[in-house]
Each structure stands twice: as structure tokens, then as C-alpha cells.
Specification:
The complex is a heterodimer.
Chain A: H1 3-36, H2 68-104, H3 106-121, H4 124-135, H5 139-166, H6 169-176, H7 181-217, H8 229-235, H9 244-247, H10 249-270, H11 277-281, H12 307-322, E1 339-352, E2 355-368, E3 372-376, H13 383-388, E4 399-406, E5 413-414, H14 420-426, E6 431-434, H15 448-458, H16 465-478, H17 484-489, H18 497-509, E7 515-519, H19 527-544, E8 547-552, H20 555-561, E9 564-569, E10 572-578, H21 579-584, H22 589-596, E11 647-648, H23 657-660, E12 667-668
Parallel strand pairs in A: 3-8, 3-9, 6-7, 7-8
Antiparallel strand pairs in A: 1-2, 1-4, 4-5, 9-10, 10-12, 11-12
Helix pairs in contact in A: 1-2, 1-10, 2-3, 2-5, 2-7, 3-5, 4-5, 5-7, 7-8, 7-10, 8-10, 15-16, 15-18, 16-18
Chain B: H1 2-30, H2 35-44, H3 50-60, H4 66-78, H5 92-127, H6 132-146, H7 149-163, H8 175-205, H9 208-215, H10 220-258, H11 263-273, H12 276-304
Helix pairs in contact in B: 1-12, 2-3, 5-6, 5-8, 5-10, 6-8, 7-8, 8-10, 9-10, 10-11, 10-12, 11-12
The chains are: A alpha/beta, B mainly alpha.
């Protein structure tokens, strides 16, 4: 974890501490009430009854002239006493029952589980009222009544925890060593069961305090003359309108404790992933970063981010500022005829502990009309983010910067930073997307037909219901589904993976798009279905003249379909160019490694694959210098310094002249690549595009 | 499949209700003091003689063993006969029936407030990703669940009745007097419900099919209505049933404060007077209503989501945010 991560992590727990602060204050006040209270809470002084706050009585006095502040403090004491007692009883009982049941298993466990379920589903207020109704009020009965209600969640938590541990090899080993059940439960099962129960207990405080106050308010909890908040409120009721100091302070005290407890419960239950109110009370990042697509994600996440990384980030920011939404004249290569999508300096960052972490850094690629571009890289290389970011199809927390122009010349539309309305003019009309997990990409509660109908209507091709459905069936037939009418009535889980993938393609085609983005379209399918789908995609490209972006880790898919390829590593482009030349003469050591890892039909049986050492998964800014350096066989000194730029590259002097004037240039980002000179035909020595 | 589920659902529900009845009956065993002596004293108007007490004991059947008494009591209770109040020496059944209407009306009004506000605020909380409004709604919801009902009633009395003079401070005489009890009962429930709606709907909206809907150009409204809410409906329905159940329990406080002659007030009075038969009757009816509301919601949830029909009809269901401290019970 980076230094920034540690900082943010500490700050998150600091906020949890802040939330718990009122509870700690409650406990302290309860413990220290005799020291803190200015007066005896029971000392009456009828001469000074109902006097407003003064120096002598900071919170005034009640109808019997008792000091209100002292009574509030002692009220905390009695609440704390009851709370502690209830927690002690219900924790002990609950954890013991849950642990023993979870350890024994079998029918005992089933019966106990049933009892726990029923006890948990009984309304606590009724249980407590009924028990006090037959036993009478008083502290002891209050504790019994509330423990009868409060034990069950602890038993449930402990049981679940122990049931998970019961069959662990660790316990088997202990049994073999001769440890008896008592020892196993006491030494090895109780401690892990108690821990989550203690966490839960910290959030249970509010419920118990509220219960004590409610019962006391009803005259069934703490009897007078002991001061308790709920009971103070009922005693003060006749003076509600005239003596505000009787009406407000006890209620505020209860509310603060219960609110803090609820807030703590929410925080502990859902972790810190969801924004809590304290995020805007104590913002950890500047306001302007909150709205998406506004600022560059200069990554404070990585303390080791090199100067050049931040320099390029700010360069991309400048680029984004220079190019407001709308047409613009792109660089020479972008303006070349036939470019459908031109992506420049695209960065994607996500909020990360302490700030932002880039997953895609300064990526560039072009998609030409009617051609297929493959984005290749291993899991986590950022290829999906790089392809979906222009269309706003990332997690809403993602911050996207850079430029992505759809169309060329005067009609080009800037996609980065587009609003929801602009997106709807692009998504589903000009661009269709096929997602990787076809089951998750379809709403389980709607039929296939409903999905496709919606896509047809969104694209403005729908009409009356039956007209829309006819288009739907036509689309399903186009993607090779044998029974379009039946498929339209089915739900996603009733179809095979290959059929669902065809359904996704049908949805994507509904708007007759110019560009189809397919994220690992064949990954989860078996080989024959893969081949059929690849044929389908190739046929669609030929028949409809669509351009495509195929995201894949499978070089076989790429060589079969794609015209151009962009190889990504750790969020950056490492190599790009026409498929044929990249495959034939890979320039980047990572590309070479990828190709070596593919089984070759002509290889001598028994030959070992050459695999790349090391592991993937780094982000673009996690390593100073070239992200591939730790795994690179040919790294040289400058590689540790800063990430190499993506430069135009001519493979070798003997290359066919056609490659030098090809519409798609070879580009490589590697210091060690000796031929990585800048002998591009157009601009010598320049970083093209800028 | 569906009929099998219905059978299991019915059996489970009857089982839970029976468990409730056993627990309610067992209150007698916990009791301090002798019910026969109390009733005899009520009748005599002064401490009763041992002969009088023995006569009442035989009359009430308290001389029989506990299981026999339980079965007799249950058989009578099913027909609406809850015996005599120890406090007033009058039959409990008719009084309960009379009071059910009051409580049902109060709960119905509060349920409308809770459902409309809770679902509305919850949707807003899920759709707004960040910003002040979202935070404010969340704080308001948590505050609503944290403020004790009796203190909330004070605040409303001070504001609406005494300062603005819009409504009377208490009583049950026409629509103006309904406002405060229904608000006091409904607002905390709305707060709790809104948190659940917000979290479940947010989860539904974070699923990949929402991205897919954006990719095909669906409008945000369509995504919430067609993709988000239906997929969040199961848990929301279950919590809505639970919320209505908690409203029943909440009447215990609210009726007491505003002087409504309903079941909740009856329960509190019975508890204060240690009037055990009346207490049992009120506990059985309120608890039964609470359980039925939960069970009905769970049954409906299973109708929506076929996957749930295979599992037990009691017990942990899909993950749900933990309870907030409203001192009622944990949503199961």
C-alpha cells in the first residue's frame, strides 16, 4: 500500500472514532456522574422549583427544585448501568448458546437456530413490556426483560462464526491431539465468536438506551426518585410549554446516544465504501474533484509517481481544456480519412484511499470505419476501462480525462465529459456494446424480448408494440438465434452462454451502430461456440460495415478478427500497429512474451512454453519508470527513471515500404528497443498526435 | 412448487404463532404475585380471604397443571375469549375487539406516511450519488430513527399544537387529532425504511445490467423504474412488512401519549396494573399482528422472486442492512 493509502486508511478509522465519540462520552459521563454533578440529583428545594437555567443551576430545576443538570448526568449513569448489565447478560448467554450450538451441529443446532430465528423476529418492546408487566418495574426486572430480547442476535452471530470454523483442519488437528470439547470451545471457538459480537454490542448501545428510556417513560422502567432520561420527560410533561429546560435536554441526550449508535452501526455494517455524512462534514478531497470528468486525476495515491507521470497527467489536463465538447480539428493522424473514434491521452482514475489511483494512463488509439481494433492485455491491464471510458460505461466514481472524438472533421463529437443527454445520442444509436458477463448484463427479471424492444425504442426504431417486436425478432434472427420468437419470451437464465452473447449482440445492433464494442465476447464460451461467434462478428463487420473494438486477452481471437491491435500493460499502451506486423515482429518485450506464451502448432512436442516471470496487476503509477521493468528481460538503466513514451517505430530497414506509409503506424513504448527511433514518415522525431 | 411453498409457508406461520402463544402463556409462570388473589381482591374490593382466593383459583382453572391450562387458554383465546380482567373483573375479549379498530386506523395512517416517505426518500438516496442533498436526506433518516417517539411527540406538540395551534394536543376526535399520532408513529418507520430502500436500490443500480442499459441508451428514469426497483423489490417488500409490524408495536407508546383508546394503551395499562390475562391478550393480538405482517411480506417476496421458494420460509434472507436502534426487533 502506498503512503497515501495509509494516510486515508487512518483517516477513515479516525472518522469511525469520531462517530463513536458520543458513545464514549456517554460512558464517561455515566461513570463520572458523582464527580461531575454539581448537586445531589435527589435533593429537592421547593422554593427553587421550575427555575430557569442560572449560574447555580446550569440547566434549571424541575418541579421539585432538583438540579436538572445533575439529574441528566445521573440519568446517564443509570442508563449506562442497565446497558452494561443487559449487554453482559445477553452477550454471555447469546455467545454461549450460539457457540455450543454451532459446535455441536446436528439437530441441536437446528433447534437452537429455529429458536434464535423466532426470538430475533419477536418485537423487543412487546417482550420487555410483557415481562415487566408480570414482574413489575425496577432495575433488575428491566435487565431481565431486555436481555430476553437482546440475546438472540449474539447467539446468531456466534453460531454463524463457529459453524464456519467447526470443520476446519485446525480443529481436527486439535481433536487428534486429544483436546476435549470444553477446551476446544473455550480456547479456540469462543474468542473468534466473541470478537464480532463485541463489535455488534458497540452498536447495540443505542437500542438499549432507547428501550430503557421508553419503558421508563411509560412508568415501567426505572422508578422514581432515581433520575432517568425517559422518566424525567414524563415527569416534566405538565410543564412542557413553560419550562423548556425540562422538555429538551433529556430528549437531546437520548437522541445523541441513539444517533451515534445508529451511525456507528451503519458504518461498521457497510464499511467505508459508501460515503458517510462525515465525508462532507470532513471532506478529504477538494470539492472540485467531486464531479466527474472535470479535473485530471493527478494521483496522490502514489507517492512514488514520477515527475513525468504527473507531467503527462497535467498535459492531458491541458489537452482536455483545449478541447471543449464539440468539433475540433484533431492532429494530423486523427484527421486522416476514415477515422471513426480517435482517443488521445485517455486516463481513467478511481477514488482510492487517500485520493485517486489511475488504472488507465494516457492511452491513445484510433478505430477506423469498418475495421476491427483489438485491445490486448492481461487481466487488470486496463483494456476494458480504456475501451468503455469514452462511452461513460464505467463505475460512476471513475474520473475520465483526455479526449475521445467520435466521427471526424466537423461532425466529430467529444465523448469525454459528455452529459447524460449527449450519451443517449451516442450509446445505443451510434455505438453498441457487448459486455463480458452476458448473464450479469441482462436484467434477470425481464425477458430477452423486453431488453431488445427497449434497445429498439431507444434507437428510435420502434413503433407500435408489435412493430417493435418485429424488429426485435429480426435482430435476434440476424444474430443467428434459431428461434427468435421463443427466445424473446425467455429469461436470461434460461439461455446458454452462447445464446446470451448473441442476444447481447442483437441488442447492440438495434441502433444500427457504426461501432460495436465487444468486451471479451468469447471468453466464457467453449471452443466451438467461440468459433461460431467470431464468424458472426466477422460476418456482421462485412455485411453492416461496422467498426469494432474487440477487447481480449486471447491472441488467437485477435489474429483471426482484428485489423489493428493495441497491446496494453499496466494501464498504458506498450505497442500498437497493424495486427500482421505486430504479430510477425513484436517490438515490445511484453508483446513478445504474450506471443511466446501461446502454444504453437508447429512446436516440437515437449518444448516448454516460455512464460514471463513475475506477476501482473500493477497500476500505471505504482512503479516509477516503466511498469514492465520488474518482469522485463532487456531492461536498461533509463527504464527505472520514467515511463517510456509511445513513439512511432519503423520495424527494420528491410521492411516493405508499404508499412512505412501504412495508415496505421507502428508505435512502441520501450527504451530498450534499439529500433525505437522516430523514423516515421510524417513527422521526424516528434511525438505524433501533438 | 407454488402450492408446496404455500403449505410450508402456512405451517411455518402457524408454528411461529404457536411459539408466540407458548411464550405469552408462560408469562404466568414468570409472574410475581398470585393472579387469583388479585382478582379476588378486585371483586371483594379489599384484600381477599384464603377461601375467596381458593374459589377464584378453581373458577379460573388455575389448579390444573400448566400444559392443561395452556391448552384451555389457547382454545378459549382462539375463539376470542381471553377471560376476565384482574383489574376490572370484566371480560377482556370484547374490549380487545373494540380497541383493534382504533389501533388499526392509527397503524394504517402511519403506514401510509412511512411507505410514501420512506420509499420516496430512499429512491432519492439511491439515485443521488453524492452531494449535500443526499447527505441531508441520510442524516434526516437516521435522525428520524434515533429520536425517541415520546420526545418527538413533545416536539410536535410544542410546535404544531402550542406554537402554531394547528391541531389539538391529544385525543381522538376527527382528522386534526390524527395528524400528530400518525406522524410520531410513521416518521421513525419512514426513516428506517428509507435507509433500506436506499441501500437495496443502490445495490440493484450497481449491477452490470444497469451499465448494459446505459450502453443501449436507456434513460435514467427508465433504468430506475425498469431495472432498479424491480430487482430491489423483494427486500424492500420484506422490510415494508417489517415496518408495518413495528408500527403495531409503536402504538404502545403513541396511544399512551395521545390518549387513544387502542390496544397499545390497553397493553401498557395492563402491564402497569399487572393484569396478567389482559396483558396476555394484548400481547397475543399485537404480537400476532406483528408476525403476520412480516410473514405476509415474506410470502409476497417469494412470489416475486422464485429463487426464494426453495429455501426455508423462516430465517436469514438476502443481506439487508443491520437494524437501527429503534428498540423494536431486528429485521430478520
Amino acid at each position: 500500500m502506498t503512503a497515501g493509502g495509509r494516510w486515508r486508511g487512518r483517516s477513515a478509522s479516525r472518522r469511525t472514532v469520531l462517530v463513536a465519540l458520543p458513545l464514549a462520552g456517554f460512558a464517561l459521563v455515566g461513570l463520572l456522574a458523582p464527580l461531575l454533578a454539581p448537586a445531589d440529583p435527589a435533593a429537592t428545594d421547593l422554593a427553587a422549583s421550575l427555575s430557569p437555567p442560572s449560574a447555580e443551576h446550569p440547566l434549571g430545576t424541575d418541579q421539585l427544585g432538583r438540579d436538572q443538570l445533575s439529574r441528566i448526568l445521573y440519568g446517564a449513569r443509570i442508563s449506562l448501568t442497565v446497558t452494561a448489565a443487559v449487554l453482559a447478560v445477553s452477550l454471555t448467554v447469546g455467545v454461549l448458546i450460539g457457540t455450543v450450538a454451532g459446535y455441536l451441529g446436528g439437530w441441536v443446532d437446528r433447534v437452537v437456530a429455529r429458536v434464535i430465528d423466532m426470538a430475533v423476529s419477536l418485537p423487543g418492546m412487546l417482550v420487555a413490556l410483557a415481562v415487566i408487566g408480570v414482574r413489575g418495574p425496577g432495575v433488575q426486572n428491566l435487565v431481565i426483560a431486555m436481555s430476553l430480547w437482546a440475546w438472540a442476535p449474539y447467539a446468531r452471530i456466534a453460531r454463524a462464526r463457529v459453524a464456519g470454523l467447526r470443520d476446519s483442519p485446525h480443529l481436527d488437528a486439535l481433536r487428534l491431539l486429544g483436546a476435549g470439547p470444553g477446551r476446544i470451545i473455550g480456547r479456540h471457538l469462543l474468542p473468534p465468536a466473541v470478537a464480532p459480537c463485541l463489535v455488534y454490542a458497540s452498536t447495540d448501545v443505542g437500542a438499549i438506551v432507547l428501550g430503557v428510556a421508553t419503558l421508563s417513560f411509560l412508568g415501567l422502567g426505572i422508578p422514581p426518585p432515581q433520575a432517568e432520561w425517559g422518566q424525567m420527560l414524563i415527569e416534566g410533561r405538565p410543564y412542557l410549554a413553560s419550562a423548556w429546560w425540562l422538555a429538551y435536554p433529556p430528549g437531546i441526550a437520548i437522541t445523541v446516544v441513539v444517533f451515534a449508535s445508529n451511525l456507528l452501526g451503519e458504518r461498521l455494517a457497510i464499511g467505508d465504501e459508501r460515503p458517510s455524512i462525515l465525508r462532507w462534514v470532513l471532506p478529504t478531497r477538494p470539492r472540485f474533484l467531486r464531479s466527474r470528468n472535470v479535473r485530471p486525476p493527478v494521483t496522490s495515491a502514489s507517492a512514488s509517481a514520477s515527475a513525468s507521470a504527473s507531467a503527462s497527467a497535467s498535459a492531458s489536463a491541458r489537452a482536455a481544456e483545449r478541447q471543449p465538447v464539440g468539433p475540433r480539428s484533431a492532429g494530423p493522424s486523427a484527421a486522416s480519412a476514415g477515422t471513426l473514434l480517435c482517443v488521445r491521452d485517455l486516463s481513467v482514475a478511481y477514488p482510492h484511499v487517500g485520493g485517486y489511483r489511475r488504472v488507465v494512463a494516457d492511452v491513445r488509439y484510433e478505430v477506423r470505419r469498418g475495421r476491427i481494433l483489438a485491445l490486448v492485455g492481461e487481466t487488470g491491464s486496463g483494456k476494458t476501462s480504456a475501451a468503455l471510458a469514452p462511452f461513460g460505461l464505467l463505475d460512476p466514481d471513475a474520473v475520465v480525462t483526455g479526449s475521445a472524438l467520435l466521427g471526424a472533421g466537423g461532425e466529430a463529437r467529444q465523448l469525454v465529459g459528455a452529459g447524460p443527454h449527449e450519451r443517449r445520442l451516442v450509446n445505443g444509436r451510434r455505438v453498441g456494446v457487448v459486455f463480458q458477463d452476458s448473464l450479469a448484463a441482462l436484467n434477470p427479471l425481464r425477458t430477452i424480448g423486453a431488453h431488445v424492444d427497449e434497445a429498439v425504442r431507444n434507437a428510435g426504431r420502434g413503433g407500435r408494440r408489435d412493430a417493435t417486436r418485429r424488429v426485435t425478432e429480426e435482430l435476434l434472427r440476424l444474430t443467428g438465434l434459431p428461434d427468435p420468437i421463443g427466445t424473446a419470451r425467455a429469461y436470461a437464465h434460461q439461455l446458454s452462454g452462447g445464446m446470451r452473447q448473441r442476444v447481447q449482440i442483437a441488442i447492440a445492433l438495434a441502433g444500427e451502430p457504426e461501432l460495436l464494442v465487444a468486451d471479451e465476447p468469447t471468453s466464457a464460451l467453449d471452443v466451438t461456440v467461440q468459433a461460431q461467434l467470431l464468424d458472426l462478428l466477422a460476418r456482421l463487420r462485412d455485411e453492416l460495415g461496422m467498426a469494432m473494438i474487440i477487447i481480449s486477452h486471447d491472441l488467437a481471437v485477435v489474429t483471426r478478427l482484428a485489423d489493428e491491435v493495441v497491446v496494453m500493460y499496466a494501464g498504458r499502451t506498450v505497442e500498437a500497429g497493424p495486427v500482421a506486423t505486430v504479430i510477425r515482429s513484436p517490438a515490445h518485450p511484453y508483446t513478445r512474451g504474450l506471443l511466446d506464451a501461446v502454444p504453437h502448432p508447429s512446436a516440437v512436442p515437449g518444448t516448454r512454453f516460455r512464460t514471463m516471470p513475475g506477476r501482473s496487476g500493477a497500476g500505471p503509477d505504482d512503479v516509477g519508470g516503466c511498469a514492465f521493468r520488474p518482469r522485463c528481460p532487456i531492461a536498461i538503466a533509463p527504464c527505472a527513471d520514467h515511463p517510456p513514451e509511445l513513439l512511432t517505430w519503423a520495424p527494420d530497414p528491410g521492411a516493405p515500404a508499404s508499412e512505412l506509409v501504412a495508415p496505421v503506424l507502428r508505435r512502441v513504448a520501450c527504451f530498450a528497443q534499439p529500433a525505437a527511433t522516430t523514423r516515421a514518415p510524417g513527422g521526424v522525431g516528434e511525438r505524433d498526435g501533438d | 412448487m407454488a402450492s408446496g411453498y404455500l403449505t410450508r409457508w402456512t405451517l411455518d406461520t402457524v408454528g411461529v404463532l404457536l411459539a408466540l402463544s407458548v411464550g405469552t402463556f408462560a408469562l404466568v409462570l414468570l409472574a410475581r404475585g398470585d393472579p387469583a388473589a388479585m382478582l379476588a381482591a378486585t371483586r371483594a374490593g379489599r384484600p381477599a380471604t384464603p377461601e375467596q382466593i381458593e374459589a377464584v383459583r378453581v373458577e379460573l382453572g388455575l389448579d390444573a397443571p400448566a400444559p392443561v391450562r395452556y391448552l384451555r387458554w389457547l382454545a378459549d383465546a382462539v375463539t376470542g375469549d381471553f377471560g376476565l380482567s384482574l383489574r376490572t373483573n370484566t371480560p377482556i375479549g370484547p374490549e380487545i375487539v373494540e380497541r383493534i379498530g382504533v389501533t388499526a386506523g392509527l397503524v394504517a395512517g402511519a403506514a401510509v406516511i412511512a411507505l410514501v416517505l420512506g420509499v420516496g426518500v430512499g429512491i432519492a438516496g439511491a439515485v443521488l450519488r453524492r452531494g449535500l442533498l443526499r447527505g441531508a436526506l441520510r442524516v434526516a433518516a437516521l435522525l428520524a430513527t434515533s429520536v425517541p417517539a415520546f420526545w418527538l411527540s413533545y416536539l410536535l406538540v410544542l410546535l404544531l399544537a402550542l406554537r402554531l395551534r394547528l391541531v389539538p394536543t391529544s385525543g381522538m376526535a376527527g382528522p386534526a387529532t390524527w395528524v400528530m399520532p400518525m406522524l410520531v408513529l410513521g416518521l421513525p418507520a419512514a426513516g428506517a425504511l428509507s435507509r433500506v430502500v436506499a441501500v437495496t436500490l443502490r445495490e440493484a443500480l450497481d449491477r452490470p445490467y444497469v451499465l448494459a442499459a446505459q450502453a443501449r441508451g436507456s434513460s435514467p428514469l427508465s433504468i430506475v423504474v425498469r431495472d432498479g426497483l424491480p430487482n430491489a423489490a423483494g427486500p424492500i417488500l420484506s422490510v415494508a412488512g417489517f415496518t408495518i409490524g413495528t408500527l403495531l408495536v409503536g402504538t404502545v407508546v403513541v396511544e399512551q401519549i395521545f390518549g387513544w383508546p387502542g390496544l397499545g394503551a390497553y397493553f401498557v395499562r395492563a402491564a402497569s396494573a399487572r393484569d396478567i390475562p389482559a396483558l396476555q391478550a394484548a400481547a397475543l393480538v399485537l404480537g400476532g399482528g406483528f408476525i403476520l405482517a412480516n410473514r405476509l411480506a415474506d410470502g409476497l417476496q417469494a412470489l416475486i422472486d422464485p429463487r426464494l421458494r426453495r429455501t426455508s420460509t423462516i430465517g436469514p434472507r438476502p443481506p439487508r442492512p443491520r437494524r437501527t436502534a429503534s428498540f423494536r426487533t431486528e429485521p430478520t
